[in-house]
Amino acid sequence: MKLYEFEAKQILAGYGVEVPRSVLILRGEDAKAKIEEAGLRFPVVVKSQVLVAGRGKAGGIRKAEDLDEAVRLVKELFEKPIKGILPGAILVEEAVPFERELYVSITIDRSERKPVVLASAYGGVDIEEIARERPESIIRYHVDPFLGLRGYEARAIGRELELKGRLLVSFTSFLQTMYRVFEAFDAELVESNPLGVVGDKVVPLDARIIVDDNSLFRHKSLVEGRRVEQRGEFTEWEVKARSLGLAFVELDGNVGVIGNGAGLTMATMDLVYHYGGRPANFLDIGGGARAELVKKAVSFLLDFPKADRIFMNIFGGITRGDEVARGVVEAVKERGLKKPLVVRLSGTREEEGRKILKEAGIEAFTDPVEAVKRVVSL
Amino acid sequence: MAVLLDSGARVLVQGITGREGSFHTKLMLEYGTKVVAGVTPGKGGGEVHGVPVYDSVAEALSEHPDINTSIVFVPAPFAPDAVYEAIDAGIKLVVVITEGIPVHDTMKFVNYAKSKGAYIIGPNCPGIITPGQAKVGIMPGHIFKPGPVGVVSRSGTLTYEISYLLTREGVGQSTVIGIGGDPVVGLTFTEAMKLFQDDEETEALVLIGEIGGDMEERAAAMMAKGEFKKPVVAYIAGRTAPREKRMGHAGAIIMMGTGTYESKVKALEEAGALIAETPFQVPELVKKALRR
Predict the structure, then answer these.
(1) Which residues, given as ranges, of chain B have pLDDT below 70?
(2) Is the pTM higher than 0.90?
(3) In chain B, at which end, N or C, are there fewer CB atoms within 10 A of the end residue's CB?
(4) Each residue of A294-330: pLDDT tens digit?
(5) DSSP β-ladder status, B204-210 and B232-237
(6) Domain A21-94 class?
(7) Please, is B261 exposed, middle or buried when counting C-beta atoms within 10 Å of its C-beta (0-12, 13-18, 19+)?
(8) Residues of B in contact with A264 (CB under 8 A)
(9) If we measure between CA atoms, which residue out of B53, B116, B45, B105 comes closest to residue B78?
(10) Which CATH number fits domain A100-224: 3.30.420.10, 3.30.470.20, 3.40.50.720, 2.40.30.100?
């Protein structure tokens, strides 16, 4: 789960980090009154709260010299979609006169199976760009997950960034706090970019936290107490799918895809592409799916307007062919065969399954390559 | 010979009384795996499909000192505890089927296992099978047959599909390992490759990767350095997957520019692997590799 900038900064502030003074304006609130009430000093930075990357470049961050300009910009940003997404909130924050911008993040190095601190003296652009333009500037430091980030380790990273004196102390304390947040919130990523240098202090000008979805059972308050509903990370149909409990990702093509298992479903998308089609989505019904779930998934794609045909690729191990077929037939009975549907069914009880499908007038194949060629040619 | 698992395996099932644990205990027994005991705290004294159930791993081991392998079906919030319990009891191979374990927990128990010299397979994996000898996992046993090809995979169903295709074409498998789809897993491609390199029965390796992470690139580096000398056929899923989107598996995501299909295929191709563009090309390429 991606957290908004304002949420990430609130968390850091809760751990004693000095963050710029700010006020959050929710959609529909009186921006003028709220900014006045907060007593912010001008100039301020007006920031669209969206979860997509590259918000600055897309015009989602603007500077205002006085109250009127700030109010006007808040209104403007509420109406300005960032990569297709309208924000649910705008953060108005005192502009901090920083001298330079650092990059720092903590994430998980999947191959080393350890937390890794990434830091660079050249912040303000995203890490991919730093890696491209100044790869030598990136410091990578692995942390023992049982010991956490020790003070001397944080200082060593600060010294590599050529920070000295009280600035080094401020940076060390900030980095250790970031690590505590990383642990306490089961984060996949805690990032501050840019981390501003202001005199002898560091101040997080932006902050980003991604919480591991698997850990949400122990972070219920993060989900339940949210002031701004999750926007921007998911499309309208992805949100619908999530509410139905389906693992669905929207793509740009027109061939609806259903598979069982993430790897097989991706392979099915790739197969469609390989034979000249373009997948409209990823939809994984997982292992051992029952008829009820199959029905839900097929109905969903029958309704999904981007898909003008559906290719369903099932390899039954634990998943039973007859169970799958019954789910498909029920969905079609309820929704009608609004678009062509081609099913490849192999494995456990495949013959029973194909028989059920054929009786209902649905095309069923054993060979996935034949099936995909068929669906692409329609 | 085989890798990590053979007919000498004596298996403990942790979470044996649950729906999945009980169902797959039955299937493992039917395959011929020696499942000797199970654990569910609070259910000690019972039996599941004739297998005695204990309250703790230590108790199971004191009654069955020949246990050398464990398979974990315990729900995610309690699974890490089960893994530590197995490692601390001295079990050297722990297969974690459980899906949805927080990555920070996995990171810790995987590091702990390493320090104790234990292998973890998974989490969120189908397990391991040495056809004709034993299966410790949830894969359908009948699609495999003994033979010279090792398979190591990040995906479950895709492993079944490809193994089935191999079997149908008459190409059997030495050992098949599903290492799991999470961002952090125990056994990695390169660790598995070290084992397959030393296994005399394995003549070629099928590597089934996915977008996300850099395990495939590391496998390629190992080949390029000459540390893995057997022919490799690789298939990578996710060519058409968008960036920054999780494709079902928690680990199947291109983040901060790493983990792309192109990078993986390029690295493997340069290291001499044969690349299958679809899963259905794998058997043909394996046959070609075996003839070399």
Answers:
(1) 1
(2) yes
(3) C
(4) 999 999 999 999 999 999 999 987 788 999 999 999 9
(5) parallel
(6) alpha beta
(7) buried
(8) 155, 157-158, 161, 237
(9) B105
(10) 3.30.470.20
Give dist(CA B104, CA A114) in Å, integer: 9
Model pLDDT, residue A348: 80
Task: Find the helix or strand (DSSP H, E) in which B237 lies.
Answer: strand B232-237
Cα dihedral A342→A346→A348→A350 (10° resolution): 60
Could you tell me the two tokens for A87?
């924000």
In chain B, domain spans: 10-121, 139-291
Q: Are residues A346 and B164, on separate chains, in Cβ contact within 8 Å?
A: yes
- A134 Cβ partners below 8 Å, 6+ apart? A120, A122
- Shortest Cα distance, chain B CAs vs residue A146, angstroms: 7
Are residues B170 and B176 in contact, defined by beta-carbon separation less than 8 angstroms? no
Contact residues, chain B, for A188 at CB < 8 Å: 103, 183
**pLDDT of res. A254:** 97
Number of H helices, E strands in chain A: 13, 16
Residue B144: what pLDDT? Answer: 96
Query: Looking at this predicted complex, what is its ipTM?
Result: 0.91
| DSSP, residue by residue, A37-75 | HHTPPSSEEEEE--SSS-TTTTT-EEEESSHHHHHHHHH
Nearest to A110 among B183, B240, B277 (CB): B183
Nearest-5° Cα angle at A97, A94 to A98? 120
Chain A closest-CA separation from residue B219 CA (Å):
11
Residue B31's nearest CA partner among B139, B148, B150 is B139
Structure tokens at B129: 């099978």
Residue in B154, B168, B240 to test binding to A, most A beta-carbons within 10 Å: B240
**Residue B263 near residue B187 (C-beta atoms within 8 A):** no
Task: Report how far Cα B28 is from the mean position of its chain's Cα atoms.
Answer: 15
Say whether A146 and B239 touch across the interface (CB within 8 A): no
Residue B210: its chain A contacts at CB < 8 A? Answer: 262-263, 266
- Say how many Å lie between the first and final Cα of chain A, rounded: 39
List the domain boundaries for chain A. Answer: 21-94, 100-224, 236-377
Cis peptide bond prior to B123, omega within 30° of 0: yes
Task: Tell me the C-alpha distance between B212 and A188, whole Å.
Answer: 14
Within 13 A of B282's CA, how many CA atoms are on the CB side?
33
Residue A357 sits at the vertex; the CA angle it makes with A356 and A360, to the nearest 5 degrees, is 90
List the CATH code of the domain at B10-121.
3.40.50.720
Predicted local confidence at residue B191, as pLDDT: 97
Distance CA(B10)–CA(A62), nearest Å, equals: 65
Residue length of chain B:
292
Name which of B104, B184, B207, B277 to mutate to probe chain A: the one with the most chain A Cβ atoms within 10 A of its Cβ.
B104
Q: Name the CATH code of domain B139-291 (choices 1.20.1250.20, 3.40.50.261, 3.60.150.10, 1.10.443.10).
A: 3.40.50.261
Q: Which residue(s) pair with A190 in the sheet?
A: A106, A209
Tell me how far apart the alpha carbons of residues A102 and A21 are, in angstroms, rounded to a whole number.
20
Which residues of chain A have a pLDDT value below 70? Answer: 229-232
| SS3 state of residue B273 | coil
Contact A101, A195 (CB under 8 A): yes
* pLDDT given at position B1: 66
Q: Is A103 a catalytic residue?
A: yes
